[in-house]
Design brief:
184 residues; mainly beta; wza like fold; Outer membrane lipoprotein wza fold like; 2 domains; five-stranded mixed sheet; 3 helices
Length: 184
């Protein structure tokens, strides 16, 4: 089974995130209301999930997709401010996590992903081009800093793929995944 099938892509035309991406604190968005003389505004989503709109003030958009946030603003603008508002919200920068995949993978590298997307260990290895033939799938290490202390966790990917009831292992910001070579 190839892990390439597990990998997911981020991005769509006109946006740096997929249509299912939910906006989160720290993201930077562009708010545009068509036919509005005030034009477009670029805003960072506050820690409380809010952006400032010139007519509406602070509006919560965290947890919504781009299209969901646009529909919310259109509903709030309809009637009192505009007859038929058309709003566009585009994420131009998202809050990221960074992780490293090293060792017996086809494309070892440093990777980033949206902070509000849960990236599994399998997704991370797929992003690194899948295992090399010599990879030890039984002893994949995750190096992680927990409460200021470096910890190493060993995961048996072979067993995980064979067991349909296995619990996914999620990557956290700053993780290093090390795939050693098998000597058998």
């Amino acid at each position: 089974m190839s892990l390439a099938l597990v990998s997911s892509a981020y991005g769509q035309t006109g946006s740096i995130v997929g249509e299912d991406y939910t906006i989160s604190s720290g993201d930077v968005v562009t708010l545009s209301t068509f036919d509005d003389p005030k034009g477009a505004a670029t805003e960072r989503v506050s820690p409380k999930g809010m952006v400032e709109h010139p007519y509406l003030g602070a509006i919560s958009i965290a947890g919504l997709t781009e299209s969901g946030a646009a529909r919310k603003l259109e509903g709030l603008l309809r009637g009192d401010y505009l007859v038929n508002p058309r709003v566009s919200i585009t994420v131009i920068s998202y809050t990221k996590i960074t992780f490293v995949v090293l060792g017996a993978v086809n494309a070892p590298n440093t990777f980033t992903a949206p902070a509000n997307k849960r990236i599994t260990l399998l997704n991370a290895i797929a992003q690194a081009g899948d295992f090399k033939d010599v990879a030890n799938r039984k002893k994949v290490q995750i190096l992680r800093r927990v409460n200021g202390v470096n910890k190493a966790y060993t995961v048996n990917i072979k067993e995980m793929l064979e067991n349909s009831n296995s619990v996914p292992v999620y990557i956290e910001d700053g993780d290093t995944i090390r795939v050693k070579e098998s000597f058998l």
